[in-house]
Amino acid sequence: MYRLDHVTKQYQGKRTVTALKDVTLEIPAGQHVAIQGPTGGGKSTLLQMLGALDRPTSGRVVLGEAELSHLPDAKLAGVRAAQLGFVFQGFNLIPTLTAQENVEAALAPLGVAAAERTRRAGEALAAVGLADRAGHMPGELSGGQQQRVAIARALVKEPEVLLADEPTGALDEATRDEILELLEGIRRDRGLTLVIVTHDSAVARRAERRLHLRDGVVTEGVIR
Amino acid sequence: MFFTFLRRELAGRRRQTAIVAIGMALAIALVMIVNAVSTGMRDAQAEVLQSVYGVGTDLTVTATPTAPGEGGAAGGPQRFEFDAGAGQTADGSTALSQSRLTSGPGSQTFDAAALDTVQAIDGVEAAAATLALENVTFSGELPAMSQDQGGTEVQTAPDGGGAPPQGGFDGAGGSAFDVDRVTVLGIDPAGAAVGPLSAAAVDEGRGLEASDAGQAVAVLDASYAAIAGLAVGDAIELGGTEFEIVGTVASTSADATTASNAYVPLDLAQSLSGQEGKVSDVYVQAASADRIDAVQASIEEALPETSVSTQSDLAAQVSGSLGSASALISNLGLWVSIAVLAAAFLTAILFTIQGVTRRTREFGTLKAIGWRNRRIVGQVAGESLVQGLIGGAAGLVVGLAGIWVVNLLGLTLGGSTGGGFTAGGPGAMQGADASAGAPPGGMAGGPFGAAASQTATEVVLSAPVTLSVIAIAVGLAVLGGMLAGVIGGWRAARLRPAEALRSVA
Ligand SMILES: Nc1ncnc2c1ncn2[C@@H]1O[C@H](COP(=O)(O)OP(=O)(O)OP(=O)(O)O)[C@@H](O)[C@H]1O
Ligand SMILES: [Mg+2]
């Protein structure tokens, strides 16, 4: 699915920070990968490279056939719209839109007709167990419910890859396990590639492959 | 999606939406009112001009003014002479009355042949000549002089002697005199339909006709006739001749008087005032608007002794409260509108930028899930535009209400034209009083005839709601909304999609 070749990412500022140092990595389609490491180690930066949110300073990032490191902004947006799903630690729902509308927002750039959009968003919400909360505003939902809406939003476009940055970081343990089971179930059903950044070893242990990032350098952890 | 999101967003921040919309509404309303009022002012000025120069007059030809004293045509000696037998004696008083027709104040005459010269010029559609005059009537009562009373006996005793004076207006030997001024315009009854009377319509009786040439008939301004207590069929003495009043005329714009108090046939006006073959003004209509400048140049060349003024030269001469109000509106009104408009636009822009900054994570997230910049810019611009349109709609209502109030107030403005050439006379008084830049009684007035120098017109200000006023409101609303939207959208477009991953902190 992914191939990273000597990827380096530097942030220019008062002091140049090298967030990723010469990372070479391959992630096969359908793999469940956990990324761990100390804070500031470069985990979110790596996720941005995988998620076509930013380009590396040097090296190549290839998703399937597309070389993300050389695509223009509009093309990157297209890749994100069609192939990638994101789940964030802070849920990142649009506060002024209902659960249903938040999910539909993911289909807007794909040019899906309104009726079709409504139907698919409804199905996605049902798949995360929130069919009865479609009309609620994010503020009226619990953290776990909000994250379910965010997962529905990530999955409604039927992406090939799901990228999650600390998806359970803001949740209690019971809710955390529910969310993980939901994600794993969907991955199994759809053959989804799942990349989760986490501080939580309990989350990391459930992955097939664990990567460790420290000072921008990747080392392989336990593979089971 | 676009409209749902837009509606939810604006509803979600009602207070900001309201502030921006109110600011925009006030600014737009102000611009509308100022625009409508200045249109009203312009109309009022045109009305004042029209009442003086007539409809369709493009150019006015007058004698180039010379300093008072040099001008030879200013009419005979200003003296009233009564011989011994003059007047009628009754009850011991002698009533005397004499009227004299002279050139009006500020008016200089030139040869009537100028009309033929003007009419021969290429591009002149029509021309008419007039002679502006003023009739001054001197009337009064004197005590009768009785021969036998004055006798040979010398009156020496202060407390006795002859009989006390009798007669006179107070019955005790006093005298009283009235001086009455009437503006008179000599017009060619068979002439072209240009000039002052083209803006007037017959009120009662009839107007002057071709067959009136040489006849002692007069047409009076309807409001003057009312004040003077004269009606059709009565007589008026002008220059010592009894004129039969055959009709009255009123200005076609309801609230203005006509150019003169009385209108008489030109030939009679010339002979009675001793100005044979002279005229004071020639009114010219050009064949088309784009030929006015050329016609002006040709006349100036053909008649070097005259001044040729266009309608816009004349408009600059409108003074009085109308002139000052007009200047106030066009200067102060314009700048206040611009300032308020700028403040409203700035408010809209700042709130939009602040909104985009507050929604950094929101827009980052939308970019992360695949929204292109174009869509996000469109969303931000759409929100601003709708905000502007709400303000525009509110502004339109407030502005129309404001214009309605202005019209309801029915402000009256006095305007006079060309006053101030000669010291004295109502025209000069107006010019001085208006403080529109003319030194009192000085030479700063325009080179216009007596009719011009004596015309003061009261005009009720009406601020019209024109299509352009509405277009301004809508245009400004769209412009303000777009401006804020483009700036906000540009800020949103610059956000990195990676902002979505920023920790909630
Ligand atoms: N936009 C940026 N500009 C400058 N420096 C940045 C930027 N984003 C990240 N960095 C730096 O790059 C390094 C890696 O950051 P990154 O966010 O990838 O760490 P992380 O492993 O995700 O940390 P955490 O566990 O705290 O989320 C850090 O030193 C950080 O300060
Ligand atoms: Mg991070």
TrEMBL record, chain B:
Biased composition (Gly residues): 159-173
Domain MacB-like periplasmic core positions: 17-301
Coiled coil: none
Cited Pfam families: FtsX, MacB_PCD
Keywords: Cell membrane, Membrane, Transmembrane, Transmembrane helix
Subcellular localization(s) per the UniProt record: Cell membrane
Primary localization class, coarse: membrane
Annotated GO MF terms: transmembrane transporter activity
Family, as annotated: Belongs to the ABC-4 integral membrane protein family.
Residue span(s) of domain ABC3 transporter permease C-terminal: 337-495
Protein name in UniProt: Membrane protein
Positions of the UniProt region annotated as Disordered: 64-106, 142-173
Biased composition (Polar residues): 90-106, 146-155
PANTHER family linked: ABC TRANSPORTER PERMEASE YTRF (PTHR30572:SF4), MEMBRANE COMPONENT OF TRANSPORTER-RELATED (PTHR30572)
Transmembrane segments: 17-37, 332-353, 384-406, 465-487
Topology class, membrane: Multi-pass membrane protein
Protein's organism: Agromyces mediolanus (Corynebacterium mediolanum)
Keyword Glycoprotein: no
CC per GO annotation: plasma membrane
